[in-house]
């Protein structure tokens, strides 16, 4: 379980004091954690390291509860026609998953997955591949299984919100080279032998896209160099530098000023037409602008209702509106109509939340918030979709429902914005 602290450095626990018989003992336990604050009359919000919160949770689990609360709950169930709860549940609720996301996690994030499940709980996929079940080892306390479920849910959601799936036309020889050059991407063959489905983060797929453009620009000469091992060895022996985009000898070499990576001038200039960033390390050279339709609007309102996990702060509500229209030259299908979108998102009205709002405003003004493409939820093409800057579209429900509480969200969205040159 100790490895979980590496994944979740900060954890928040909500404690309802009235659920315990020994109120004084509960208050003593809560007061040991420095960052504890009363959120309501009978509840406390405690923030601390994973180890601190886990220890407190396990200690609280040993205390005797107020039986009147259990009795009232059973009476309510009986009034609704349900059977009384005579035995404690021995199963932790499963988690619904997307098959393609889990395939990526199992093949590319196996170390993180092992840390998430710990040493006392096993994760098993259902026969439909749509659910994850949590099976504790013999004599493992149920609370450990519940912790494993919550760790997995946060881990899964963090990865799922960063993934993209794209199709590329890639030959067999080229595929082997790309699999070596992009180990963080998952390449899968389709029924079309020259079409490959690629799964990975926005940054990695953009690097792949730029590399593919380099391959295409160089044509057969580039492929000959990639598949001819002897030529490559000769190049290294003579100290010749290889362009990371086309994998050929640098032609009319251009070295970038900040990161000092070198490319063929033609390759890097074409890459910069897509995104003004180094294809190797991602360092930006100029402001990035997207292809978000120009007729959209972004409006901001605030209210005093706190979001879960942000007691004491109000809520910032962001409303986006992008009307339908006709695609331009910068879009996938120029001249065709695209379907617009209206979206609502939420931020805590805290100092960090207001900083993130400023960054989101910059992203919208640089046309980076939305793009035109294929909807990952409906499967329809020529629609306005999110452009890899993830938003909380629900006030509550936690990460699995794209809502709060989610203490890592503000940090994650800052990283997504940083990738696009906004920080």
Evaluate the radius of gyration.
Answer: 26 Å
Largest beta-sheet details: 3 strands, antiparallel
What gross morphology would you assign? globular
State the secondary-structure class. Answer: alpha+beta
Number of helices: 13
**pLDDT below 50 for ≥5 consecutive residues: which ranges?**
68-89, 220-238
- The average pLDDT score comes to 78
Percent of sequence in beta strands: 15-25%
Q: Strand order, biggest sheet?
A: 1-3-2
Terminal Cα span: 34 Å
Count of DSSP strands = 18
The helix content, as a percent range, equals: 25-40%
What do these coordinates show?
It is found in: Cytoplasm. One of its GO terms (molecular function) is ubiquitin protein ligase activity. There is one protein chain. With 423 residues, this protein is an alpha+beta fold. 37% of the residues lie in helices and 21% in strands. The strands form seven sheets. A three-stranded antiparallel sheet has the order 1-3-2. It has a three-stranded antiparallel sheet with strand order 4-6-5. It has a three-stranded antiparallel sheet with strand order 7-9-8. The radius of gyration is 26 Å and the shape is globular. It starts with a helix and ends with a helix. Mean pLDDT is 78; it is low at 68-89 and 220-238.
């Amino acid at each position: 379980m100790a490895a979980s602290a590496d994944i979740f450095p900060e954890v928040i626990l909500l404690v309802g004091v009235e659920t315990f018989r020994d109120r004084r003992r509960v208050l003593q336990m809560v007061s040991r954690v420095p960052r504890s604050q009363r959120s309501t009359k009978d509840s406390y919000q405690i923030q601390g390291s994973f180890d601190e919160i886990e220890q407190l949770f396990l200690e609280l689990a040993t205390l005797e509860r107020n039986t009147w609360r259990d009795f009232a709950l059973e009476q309510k169930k009986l009034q609704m026609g349900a059977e009384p709860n005579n035995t404690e549940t021995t199963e932790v609720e499963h988690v619904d998953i997307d098959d393609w996301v889990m395939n990526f996690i199992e093949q590319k994030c196996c170390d993180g997955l092992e840390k998430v499940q710990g040493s006392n709980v096993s994760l098993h996929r259902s026969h439909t591949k749509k659910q994850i079940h949590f099976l504790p080892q013999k004599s493992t306390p149920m609370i450990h299984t519940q912790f494993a479920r919550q760790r997995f849910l946060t881990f899964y959601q963090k990865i799922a919100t960063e993934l993209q799936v794209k199709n590329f036309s890639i030959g067999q020889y080229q595929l082997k080279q790309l699999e070596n050059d992009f180990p963080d991407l998952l390449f899968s063959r389709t029924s079309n032998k020259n079409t490959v489905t690629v799964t990975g983060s926005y940054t990695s797929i953009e690097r792949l896209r730029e590399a593919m453009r380099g391959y295409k620009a160089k044509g057969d000469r580039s492929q000959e160099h990639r598949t001819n091992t002897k030529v490559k060895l000769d190049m290294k022996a003579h100290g010749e530098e290889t362009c990371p985009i086309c994998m050929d000898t640098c032609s009319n070499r251009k070295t970038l000023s900040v990161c000092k990576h070198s490319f063929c001038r033609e390759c890097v200039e074409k890459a910069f037409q897509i995104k003004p960033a180094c294809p190797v390390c991602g360092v930006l050279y100029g402001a990035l602008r997207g292809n978000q339709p120009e007729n959209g609007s972004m409006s901001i309102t605030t209210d005093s209702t706190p979001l879960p996990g942000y007691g004491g702060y109000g809520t910032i509500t962001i409303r986006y509106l992008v009307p339908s229209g006709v695609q331009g030259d910068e879009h996938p299908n120029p001249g065709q109509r695209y379907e617009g979108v209206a979206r609502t998102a939420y931020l805590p009205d805290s100092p960090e939340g207001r900083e993130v709002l400023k960054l989101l405003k910059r992203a919208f003004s640089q046309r980076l918030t939305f793009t035109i493409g294929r909807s990952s939820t409906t499967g329809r093409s020529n629609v306005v979709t999110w452009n890899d800057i993830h938003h909380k579209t629900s006030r509550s429900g936690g990460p699995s429902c794209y809502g709060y509480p989610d203490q890592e969200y503000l940090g994650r969205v800052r990283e997504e914005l940083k990738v696009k040159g906004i920080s």
